[in-house]
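Notes from the pairing session

We agreed to fold both candidates in a single pass and log them together. This is the raw record for the first candidate, unedited. Please don't reformat it; downstream parsing expects exactly this layout.

Candidate A
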Amino acid sequence: MNKNFFYYFLIILLLSCSNESQTTQIIQEAENIIRINPDSAVNILSKIKQPESLHNNNKADYYRLNSLSHLMTNKAMVDDSLILFSLQYYKQNKISDYLSETLLLAAMYYHWNNDASLYNDLLNEGLDYSLKNNDSVNSAKYHYLLGEVQNNNRNYLNAIEEYKRVIEFDNNAEKDLSYLIGLAYANINENDSTELYLNKSIRLSLESKDTISAIHYLRNYSDILYAQRKYPQALGLIKQSLSYDLNLSSNLLTSASGIYLMLHKIDSAQFFLDKAKEILYQDNTANLVTNYNSIMTLQSVIDYTRGKNIERTNIGRFNDSIWMDNIKKSSLIEEKIMTKNYLEQQNLLITIKEQRTQMILIIILSLLIIGIILEAIYIRNKKLKLEYLEEKSVVLQDLLSNTLKENNMHVKEDFFRKLLLQQLGLIRLVATTPTSQNQELLRQIAQISNENIDTDTLLVWDDLYKTIDSIYDNFYTLTKDKYGEILIEKEIQLCCLLCAEFSTKEISVVVQQSVRTIYQRKTTIRQKLRMNEKDDIISFITSKESLLFNVNETIS
């Protein structure tokens, strides 16, 4: 039965290890592809149904990968609070491989929750850690985000310094960062530096054949010059960008129209504006609202300049349609949220049911294991008890055999044994039992040696003490006089039985106590008499040293 329990325990342990090993493999698969294909990584992670029940190492990795997928797919990180568990776990266990990345994810969580202070603190902590570990990739990311913080706070010089540090770590970012540096210089009216960095960003874009970025930079540089009332220069940049824009963006055409209007070239302004309208009606991009309103505004200015009525109806209808569309989208979003909440609630109920079922199975399994353990203990105790009873029966049988032998050489010893056995009632049993090998005799002996029967009710020690004194030279009286104040009554009785040459097993049967208890009592007697553990108790009691011990005890 003990083997069965071990097998059950081993099966449970193996199942647990197998599940955790499978989870580790899933997390590793997601880790391998998340930076290439985050959506596929999310699908892989979805195989883990109860991440909160994982071991801490897998749990930390799961929450980190989940937050990383949100960051890489531009999803909201408002609810990614569990990334803080990953951060704490990596810090406590000094797992450096993911700590820099996790600091960044935790910072973005605070950024989404509008906690500027903790966001800034974690960015600086992540930058210090990345610099300390020569992590150029993450150092560049932290400098860039800190540059954004400074830029949003209108600390443009500090922002410029952060952006320049990014370029030191990542040369490939020079094109985009030069553009940002140029815009920052424009905000503090550093025109020479603005021109230098914006022209560099345009040049690097054209050299890398990134015409989309070049057009974007040219247009925004044109807007800066337009704000500075440098209309010819602004128009030149627009014309340059139009030469690269084969599809003729409505944004560029609208900007050109605005510049021609400021140069009082109304016909040219109307020409480019009509082109912008033509393209806009075929354009379904996200800039539709801004472009449409810009075109309508410019058209109103041109009409006013030409002495025409200003048409507001089209602008009003368009904006009203946008407003109604937003209401419709808000309603759809609300319905989606309600549906999502309902599905989450249903999933939660299913999860609770699964957990309840698992709990019931665990309880049943635990009860089964406990039952197996209790059964094993019961069988073991029963076996030990039977062995003990059988051993006592054998000892009693040997006592009977030795007592009934004729022509025994040890007359005195056998007389005491016979007297003791008579008091236990065994002589009567022998008279009624044919042989000592009879099973009925063993049963009756075992019954007499039952632990429920108090030996003191069977043995009359006052008579036995007299017998001991008469046979063994007043041993009881000598022991009582010397050690009556040191030894208790049962210890004196044990000494008497030892004097009568009873073995430890025989004494165990007579006094109805375990062999271990008899050994312990003999040890206690030796300690009380200050004897060595291997000294013979009877020899010590009857020796002169014992008498000297008694005198010293009396004096003390």
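Candidate B (folded immediately after A)
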Amino acid sequence: MIRTIQILVLLFIVIAAVGVAAKRLKIPAAILLVLAGIVLALIPGLPDVRLAPEVVLLLVLPPIIYSSAVAMSWREFHANLRPISLLAIGCVAFTTVAAAASAHWILGFSWPVGFVLGAIVSPPDAMAPLSIARRLQLPKRLLVILEGEGLANDATALILYRFAVVAVSAGAFSYSRAAGLFAGIVASEILWGLVVGWAMLRLRRWIREPQIEILLSVLTPFIAYWPPQHLGGSGVLATVTAGLYVSWNGGSLISAATRLQGIFFWDVLVYLIEGLVFLITGLQTRALLRTIGGYPISELVLSAAVVSLAVILARFMWIFPATYLPRRLIPALARHDPAPPWQWPFALAFTGVRGIVSLAAALAVPLVLTSGQPFPHRDLILFLTYAVIVVTLVGQGLLLPAVIRGLGLVDAGACERYGDRIEEIEARRLAIESAIEQLHQLAAERELPAELMQDLHTHYRGRLQHFEHEHGEAEQAPHAAEAQDEIELLLISAERKRINELHHGGALKDEARRRIERELDLRQAHLANHSHRH
């Protein structure tokens, strides 16, 4: 136990060091973590770190999916449901078939075993591509589609994976029965996710204790995920549904104190989980090299190249027809949603990076069939999955910024973000006007002290004038607000310096210092978030 804790602490140290390097090099931390894991795995004498598939599928995947779903806008998800479904269901199924065909015709896999491999390598991981896409300010719709696909595609892949493993074990497969079962799983998981989201939000509203609410928020993805997964589904759709329900309805049911504490808690939790996932992915290199020792190097390289190429090309072959063909066949769709420039589907197609779900599924492939025979080509399936992950994550991930620049999509979403900022300022202004109207109504209904009413009126009028001024500056010069934010940050630093001097001199007690620091921290975090949106 002590050894496990020591290894975990060392992994956290590596994650922190790689995070600093990634920020300096402006490379996604996921890519550097995988490379760091590979390097550490090849160093003799270091302990083995083995990845248990049940840890990923039962402990790691639920909170990652849930946090992404909560951060996702239900309105944007619903508005882009058609392209998201075409990718999360259609593209995953097409990639499964393409990878299975390549493994069958070129590598000699049987069709059922080929479908096992295809289902494993079919779902892209959106974490690394999204970090690059956001930094380069791609159009908002591309980001929403990528994020939405990343939420739902694991469900399709894991269900297909279960069907394929059963087909290999039983030696037979019924497509009609599988299609009906797939539809039943999807419907039941969505229903279960709605039930969990509704029940947990009501329970949290009844409790009204931030620490317990945050604990319940951590339990929510597992309650949504585990029952469907245990009953033969994937659990992913239920978790996504619960997260989207909380995202849409949580604003009126979750207290402000819980939101403030919960945001920071979930940010740190997801950062650590994702860091461990990518680092441990790289650390599996040593174990994989042991399992494939009996295969010729030339066969391994050829197999990895064939499957990786099939997976990459399948995404391109699906996305372009799926983008333009429906608009050709349905004129009403073309009028309602005009076809995007070719650079958009190309960028989407190039972000097909594979990740931890594929590796966990490969590791979960049974060692033996129900007949007692070894599972066919299990070691090769595991190696090919790992090869596809490394080729797409490191290869495509490192090339993605250059590809986006070559497509002319860098800062293509800057105008959208400027418009969003104008919309936000206007919403803030209208909200403050509503508060002032409510203040006038309270003054007419109650006998409140004149000084209190005057102070509140002055406070809200000052806020209203601030946002009206900011709205005018934003319309005239988009960068004017940045200068104001910079000045305010300098003023906060001056306040903080003076507070520390008073505290160190004994003129301010610790409890008061912490309250003031919290207020300054909240103001600084607000300004930092404001500057980031610009």
